[in-house]
Amino acid sequence: MPENKYTSEEVLATFLDQLIVEKNGEEMDFKKRSAIRRELREKLEVEIDGALVDALTDEQAVELEKRMNDNMTEDELSEFLENTGVDYEAAVLRALDKIREEYLRGAGDLSMTEGVENGREA
Questions:
Q1: According to the model, what pLDDT value does residue 107 have?
Q2: How far apart are CA 68 and CA 52, in angstroms?
Q3: Cα–Cα distance between 120 and 116 in angstroms, integer?
Q4: What is the pTM (predicted TM-score) of this model?
């Protein structure tokens, strides 16, 4: 398999940047773009986490909650998810689709997107 030259962080950043341009055009103040990107990123992380938890069985969800209460590390979380059989890629894609749909349609609680039209404040 060829080496992946992009990290998942770079891919997500590119996705968010393209999404912002798709809705608002190229001309947008850097501070506004950065604020929207940050807010979208936070919402995306919540959606990904939710999609992963939704994919767990009830027993796995209980076990995850127990481990999280015991201060599970990021490495332990990754190992746990790898061993559950959850299709991580499918969960991430569902979250990406949901964020894209909500943002382009203007739904959700993205306060930084309010009043922005074609890269300028309305």
A1: 59
A2: 14
A3: 5
A4: 0.71
